[in-house]
Design brief:
By secondary structure, the chain is α+β, with helices and mostly antiparallel strands. The chain contains 17 helices and 25 strands. The chain has three domains: about 220 residues, FAD/NAD(P)-binding domain (3-Layer(bba) Sandwich), CATH 3.50.50.60; about 140 residues, D-Amino Acid Oxidase, Chain A, domain 2; about 140 residues, 3-Layer(aba) Sandwich (Glutaredoxin), CATH 3.40.30. It binds flavin-adenine dinucleotide.
């Protein structure tokens, strides 16, 4: 066996959580050794929705524009729809049951637009992962950090020692093994190896339903007349409600809307049937569900089987090992919180790990990864389970009865589309019930409104509690633990978002007045050289908010301050100048002077 390699951070898994960790840690000048069992990035599309917070993180690293260029235009991901089929000339074929604004599109555009400088994106995981890989590689060479990415390399064993973690890695191409001594190990392995090896229990529902996803190529343009839906749910008397029929996602990748070349179809299957479906059979099933013509070519590119689960690890940290992404929490895909949470876990972890590795902060800062992210992702798991199960409610709203004979469900659809008062009433009921699914497709507060309660932050007794039950409204605030809100500023004639002032390698102290005093205080604090002071608002010479938003939610007075962490969350705030006397004391818990 060769000599033991040394690294600060061993990253196990080269998908969303792992590649994002590599990018963030490289940006912070930390050397990493990433290993990924597969030879290549994921060939399956899997996740595709990148939410506002993930896009804000990508924007802060200069990656957002490229994602927008390559992914679905806003107008082709503005809605989701429920249909009986795409085409067909049967009595109940080709009927639209309901269309809903989604992902910040349509009537949601105003609220999403005022809440974030970014818009959401639809970029399938099979494109996201190579994109992240390329940027991880580029950053490593640009920053000249001693980091590396090793695909076709698998973690086969590890144990903790006084230096951190000693891991044995197998090169899958030649079966040779080598060892790596790391200070820390990030388990970004989707829960496949590290968590189970450490006997960390996963609590929740392990196998709610078995799914099969077909990734296919087809020209469906002649059957579609609405370019706005990103997701289409099919519901018909034969196969029953949405999970029983099929859910189709338009993926582009060159043209979008009706001209999309590639699509996904998710099907629920009985566990004993799932593996025996041939590509041809699946293509026929898709054509029959869509009721497209016999000549329509449906070419299956790939299929994958997966289980819908909702589980949360009991611990996110064990010694020098941290669980991130699906290794720590695994969700149903509804609300699109899986990959997004993985990216946001990595973002929360990276600056803390960098501060501890550089000797700037004590180890206790790393404990806050679990106390912050477990609470938020625990809610994400429950939200995704709830919005997944809510689709069954939709079936009821349409009039379907589980297990009922086809004739009875056929009659339910006839009633629904009937041109009569009762038909109007049933359509009204369907709309009301389907609108409860806005909790999945319009939940902006799940994307940017989450707030850490316990961790690397100082609560100050004031907590804004406004909330819309389905999380469809985001209420900006500067409460410690919350993401610092976006608002537009005029900086010497140029507009920029407040979020553009926050960088992953620095704290930001937002003040209105007394810039010299606050700067001097920062200089004497544990954050000296790690924090920049930004003056905005009434007393500031240069940066002026473009409108009154900041004054509405800032909570602090002219002499106050808001300290924002490198991950964009508020750490500390003082309503007035009395905070100056407390600043150093209240920050000393985590940081070394
Ligand atoms: C059909 C579907 C649709 C989805 N839609 C969305 C969506 O729209 N939005 C969203 O946010 N999420 C969505 N998700 C969830 C999302 O795909 C996952 O949450 C995300 O992939 C998690 O990323 P990860 O990096 O944590 O883990 P994974 O993607 O599971 O990656 C783990 C990696 O670790 C590697 N690995 C495992 N063991 C080892 C080892 N011993 N050594 C080295 N490498 C190892 C694996 O090969 C794998 O590449 C969806 C999931 C599915 C199945």
């Amino acid at each position: 066996m060769s000599e033991t390699l040394q690294t600060s951070v061993l990253i196990v898994g080269g998908a969303g959580a792992g590649l994002a960790s590599s990018i963030f840690l490289t940006e912070l000048g930390i050397d990493t050794h990433l290993i990924e069992r597969r030879e290549t990035t994921s060939p399956a599309p899997k996740a595709h929705y990148l939410n506002l917070r993930s896009m804000e993180i990508f924007r802060s690293l200069g990656l957002a524009d490229e994602i927008y260029e390559r992914s679905t235009p806003a107008e082709n991901m503005a809605t989701v729809g429920w249909y009986t089929s795409l085409a067909g000339d049967g009595e109940l074929d080709g009927k639209t049951i309901h269309i809903m604004d989604a992902f910040g599109g349509g009537a949601l555009a105003e609220h999403y637009g005022e809440s974030s400088p970014c818009r959401t994106a639809n970029f399938a995981q099979l494109h996201v992962e190579p994109f992240l890989y390329a940027h991880a590689e580029k950053r490593i060479s640009k920053r000249e950090v001693a980091s590396s990415l090793h695909f076709g390399h698998e973690l086969v064993s590890f144990f903790e020692n006084e230096l951190g973690v000693l891991a044995t890695i197998r090169n899958t191409a030649n079966d040779e093994t080598y060892t790596v001594q790391a200070k820390y190990m990030l388990a970004c392995d989707g829960g496949r190896f590290v968590g189970p090896s450490l006997n960390i229990p996963m609590q929740g529902i392990e196998r709610l339903i078995d799914m099969k996803t077909a990734y296919f190529r087809a020209d469906l343009s002649s059957f579609i007349d609405d370019d706005s839906p990103m997701i289409r749910w099919f519901s018909n008397p034969e196969s029953g409600g949405a999970w029983g029929s099929g859910v189709m996602v338009a993926l582009g990748p060159k043209d979008f809307g009706r001209n999309s070349q590639e699509w996904l179809m998710h099907f629920a299957f009985n566990p004993d049937q799932i593996e025996n479906v041939e590509h041809e059979e699946l293509a026929e099933q898709i054509k029959s569900l869509l009721r497209v013509t016999a000549e329509t070519k449906v070419e299956i590119i790939k299929t994958n089987e997966w289980q819908v689960k909702g589980v949360l690890a009991d611990r996110f940290r064990q010694g020098s090992v941290f669980l991130l992404g699906d290794a720590a929490h695994c969700h149903p895909p509804t609300t699109g919180l899986g990959l997004n949470s993985a990216i946001q876990d990595a973002h929360n972890m990276a600056w803390k790990l960098a501060a501890v590795i550089k000797g700037e902060a004590s180890d206790s800062l790393l404990d806050t990864y679990e106390s912050e992210r477990r609470q938020v992702t625990g809610k994400n798991v429950r939200w995704a389970l709830y919005t997944f199960q809510n689709h069954l409610l939709i079936d009821g709203g349409i009039g379907l009865i589980p297990g009922a004979p086809v004739e009875m469900n056929t009659q339910a659809y006839r009633n629904l589309f009937e041109d009569s008062e009762i038909g109007d009433t049933l359509r009204h009921r369907a709309k009301l019930v389907i609108d409860t699914q806005t909790a999945e497709f319009q939940a902006i507060n799940m994307e940017i409104g989450f707030k850490y309660q316990l961790g690397a932050l100082h609560k100050d007794g004031h907590e804004s509690t406004e909330r819309e039950m389905f999380e469809r409204r985001y209420y900006p605030c500067t409460d410690p633990g919350a993401r610092f809100p976006h608002f537009w500023l005029n900086n010497n004639g140029k507009n920029l978002s407040s979020l553009d002032l926050i960088t992953i390698d620095s704290f930001t102290l937002f003040v209105e007045k007394n810039v010299e005093q606050w700067s001097a205080l920062v200089g004497r604090s544990p954050l000296a050289n790690k924090c920049h002071v930004v003056a905005i608002g009434a007393g500031a010479a240069q940066m002026k908010p473009l409108n009154d938003d900041w004054n509405q939610f800032k909570y602090i007075g002219d002499n106050g301050a808001v300290l924002v962490r490198p991950d964009g969350h508020v750490m500390w705030r003082s309503k007035d100048a009395s905070g100056m006397a407390r600043f150093i004391d209240e920050l000393s818990g985590f940081f070394k002077s």
